[in-house]
Structures are given as C-alpha cells and as structure tokens.
Design a protein that fits this description.
The structure holds 2 protein chains of 2 kinds.
Chain A (H helix, E strand, L loop, with lengths): L1 E7 L7 E8 L2 E4 L2 E3 L5 H14 L6 E6 L5 H13 L7 E4 L6 H12 L6 E4 L1 H9 L8 E2 L3 H8 L20 H10 L6 E4 L4 E5 L2 E6 L13 H14 L4 H19 L7 H5 L2 H12 L9 H5 L1
Helix pairs in contact in A: 1-7, 1-10, 2-3, 5-6, 7-8, 8-10
Chain B lengths: L2 H7 L12 E5 L3 H13 L5 E3 L12 E5 L3 H10 L6 E4 L11 E5 L3 E6 L2 E6 L5 E6 L4 H9 L10 H4 L3 H19 L1
Antiparallel strand pairs in B: 1-3, 1-4, 2-3, 5-6, 6-7, 7-8
The chains are: A alpha/beta, B alpha+beta.
C-alpha cells in the first residue's frame, strides 16, 4: 500500500490519517473532501487514479492543512513520527511540507524502525529537508525539476532560493547537475528529473531519457510535476521496480498531457482526467502489445 | 541502508550542519535587535539572539537566529513595525545570495518567468496570471490558488500573503514578470 504524507493548502484542514477514496465527490479522507488540484492534492489525484486503474488498494494519506506558517507541518511531522510504524506500507511518498531539519530527522528514525522498510520517495519540501539533513542517499527516489536539481547539486544551498549562480539551472545542464549531486552525496538512490527531457539516473549516470511526446505547455501548468510524482509512487507501490516505474510514469504523464491538448492556461484536472487512458496505453506498450506513438492521434478523435 | 551506515560514510556532522534550516537577521544597532526580538517572540517565532559569525562584517555585535524557511513572514512582521534588517541570510552560508537569475520563456500568447524553483505564467494579452508552478513549501499551492485568474494589477502580492522562501522566490518572479510585461 502507498502512503502519502503532505499538506493541503487550507488553513482549517485538520490533521487526518486514513484511506483516500476516489468517488463522485472527488477525493475524500475520513469523510472530508480534499479540494484543489495543486501540491499534494495533485499528487494524490494522480496516485488514486493510477491505483484504481491498476486495481491496487487506495493510498493511505497523512494530511494536514498548512498555508505556509508551518504549524500544520509541525503537527504532521510529530504525528507521523509516532504513528507511521503502525501500518505496513510498500512505499511512502513525502511531499509538500515546511522543511524543518530536526523534525525530519525524527521522522527518519521512525522510518528506520519499520520492518520491512518501505521504499521512500520524496519531492517538494520534504525532498529539500532530506537533502538539508545530509540523509538524501537513504531515500530511494527524488523527483526534482531542473531548478531543484541545481539545488541538489549545490552542496552549500539550504534551499533552491539560495542556489549559487554559477550552478546553472538550464535544462541542458541536468546531466552535470546529477553527477555533481551524487558526488556530494546529495541525491537519492535514484533520481527522476522532470523537464522537457525527463531523466532517470543513479550514481552510475543517466539510465534513461524520455522526451516523447514533447508538450511545451506542460512546464507552465502548476501540478504536472506533482502528477508525475503521484504516478511513479503508485507504480512503485504496485510492485514495479523503480527504474521501470519512472520510465512508465514519465510516458504516462506526457501522454496524458498530449491527450488533454493543453495550453499554458489549461487546468491540471483536464490532464488528470486523461491519466487512466494514458496508463492503459503505456502499459500495453510496456508489455510489447502495442507501439503507441502512431496511435496517439487516433486517441484524440 | 541503515542510518548508521549513512552517517558513518558521510563527514562528521558539523555544528553548522544542524543549523542549515536557520537564518540570521543582522541589524544596524543593538536597540533594533532588542525590538525585533520582542516582536518576533510575541508573534510566536522560535528565535535566538547570538553573536554574529565572522563572515558578517556589518551591523552590531548581536544577530537573531530564525527559521530560514519562514523568512518572508518574519520580514513582513518587522516591516509592519518599521524595522528593516541589514541582512537576512542563511546561518551556514552568510555570503549566499538569493537567486538573481531569471529564465523567461515565451509561449506566444503566454509568458513564463522562473526564479529559482518558482514559475509564474501570464497571458500577455490580458495580463491574467494563468498558472503558478514549482516550489516545495506549503504556501505555494495556496499562493497559486490566490493568484491564478487575477491580473498582475489585481493579484495579491506573494510578499503580502506568502510566508516562506518559496513565496519570496515567487515574489521575485512576479516582479520580473511586471518588468517583462511593461516592456511589451
């Protein structure tokens, strides 16, 4: 089962832990609707959709409201430190949260006591704090974009905001940024770097590049990185190995984007709606049943 | 991989390493430090007054250590009380500067500006903010919710409703977007 730890951008959303159900009202946890399509709700929407398509158990959410003041984040750190070990999870995706090194380390100690230890995926604020704490190599997968990859590559920066100027953020620098992050032990076991080209890498170098189909508008649409993290987390929790899951996830996210025919003003929900169809197509491709590149246009009709 | 193995093969954690999520506020004189300490403690912010690191060569003999991720919120509290620090910098790298490189991408009708990890996209014809993306702090999805659909003139400023360094980066992207749009 997949667990998702993250914040909801509503000040009064209470701390809740439980299965996230996908129904006619959208996503619901403990009887409370999870609104919005940005940040952790976007990750959850993609993960729920994929797990439903794969006929896997729904994700288990550890969620709290936080609009940036950090109080919700602190409660969430404290709660998961005490309760994470009460259930068995195959993978845990940590997401939007205010980075606090001391609290991160307490959560990490709780993770170390889980037997068997789940696969650990981190993105957004939790990825920042995992790097800050010096424990990045203990995580199985980070999912940065090019700007965040520059932050991982900068051994001095405490946050992407302080990434030094000589470490260029350009997409064509990503392979060098990956190598630098591994050289300083600031990367997870595997990396999935999101961008115009998606890179899957480990300490030995680039394992895969995925660039097809290319949809420029996706970069501007808030939440498309979160959906990719949600898809890869669902696939890993369903038992796919990390590299295969990363490659399939990047293809699914891109094909879902293609099917939505987006502009930079497109809402994320239009892309999420295309994920089940995209996942089925890519799984068929992965199983060697179909070459989908020529099939995409017909899907639009 | 066990925690023991991770820490064993990395350099010994330095005292500064434990402070990587902390920043320091530098003020011109001690009376400003005392006022700021009082204001921030009243606001419930966990801070400490301490001596400045050797890299800091301006200001007085005291600085305030604060949670770096909440930089935008703290600066706003101080500004509302007419206090302006000389510097607000990371403890572990007082010479580190905020990102000042912007990436601008033209999609035709839409323009996107990226500052550090934050991206802001505007419809050039209507000046409506159509998307906010990137970031990892919890005010980012909230800021996106408040800004998207508003024009650059109507939208609340990230510096006024954000709280974190991601919010600060979005403010820089917003300012750069205003510069870009004023040229066209």
């Amino acid at each position: 089962m997949l667990a998702v730890v993250g914040t909801i951008p509503e000040a009064d959303f209470p701390l809740v832990a439980g299965p996230v159900e996908l129904g006619d009202r959208g996503m619901v946890i403990q009887g409370r609707k999870i609104g919005g399509t940005r940040g952790t709700p976007a990750l959850l929407a993609a993960a729920c959709t994929c797990l439903e398509t794969l006929r896997q158990p729904v994700p288990f959410g550890f969620l709290v409201g936080d609009t940036g003041l950090g109080r919700g984040s602190e409660h969430l750190y404290e709660y998961v430190t005490r309760h994470l070990g009460e259930k068995a999870f195959s993978a845990i995706a940590f997401h939007y949260i205010l980075p606090m090194v001391d609290w991160h380390n307490r959560v990490f100690f709780a993770l170390e006591e889980m037997k068997p230890r789940p696969l650990l995926i981190a993105d957004a604020g939790f990825m920042y704090v995992a790097k800050m704490s010096g424990l990045a190599p203990a995580y199985d997968l980070f999912t940065p974009d090019a700007g965040e990859m520059a932050f991982l590559a900068d051994e001095e920066a405490p946050h992407p905001f302080y990434t030094r100027g000589f470490i260029l953020h350009e997409e064509n620098q990503v392979p060098d940024l990956i190598a630098r992050a591994y050289a300083h032990d600031n990367a997870s076991r595997y990396l999935l770097v999101k961008g115009r080209i998606d890179y899957v890498a480990d300490k030995s170098g680039i394992l895969a590049r995925v660039a097809d189909p290319t949809i420029d508008a996706l970069e501007a649409i808030g939440g498309t990185g979160d959906t990719l993290t949600g898809i890869v987390s669902a696939l890993i929790a369903a038992g796919y190995d990390i590299v295969t899951a990363a490659i399939i996830a990047t293809r699914v996210n891109r094909v879902a984007g293609y099917l939505a025919q987006p502009t930079p003003a497109t809402s994320l929900q239009e892309i999420v709606d295309q994920i089940p169809g995209a996942l089925q197509l890519i799984l068929q491709e992965h199983q060697g049943k179909k070459e989908i590149t020529s099939d995409l246009e017909s899907c639009l009709r | 991989m066990s925690l023991f193995n991770i820490w064993k093969r990395k350099k010994a954690p330095s005292p500064a390493g434990a402070l990587i999520d902390q920043g320091i506020l530098v003020f011109a004189n001690t009376s400003e430090v005392i006022r700021a300490e009082s204001l921030l403690k009243t606001a419930g912010v966990p801070i400490k007054v301490m001596g400045p690191p050797p890299e800091i060569q301006s200001g007085c003999d005291l600085v305030i250590q604060f949670p770096l991720m909440r930089k935008l919120e703290l600066l706003r509290i101080l500004e509302e009380n007419r206090l302006k620090p000389l510097q607000a910098v990371p403890v572990t790298g007082p010479l580190l500067k905020p990102v000042d490189l912007f990436q601008v991408k033209d999609f035709g009708r839409y323009l996107m500006v990226r500052a550090a990890n934050m991206k802001l996209t505007v419809d050039k014809e209507t000046r409506v903010i159509v998307n906010v993306s990137g970031g990892g702090c919890p005010d980012v999805p909230y800021l996106a919710y408040r800004l998207v659909g508003q024009t650059l003139e109507q939208a609340p400023r990230p510096r006024d409703i954000g709280h974190t360094v991601c919010g600060y980066a979005l403010e820089l992207a917003f300012e750069e977007m205003e510069r870009q749009c004023s040229r066209s």
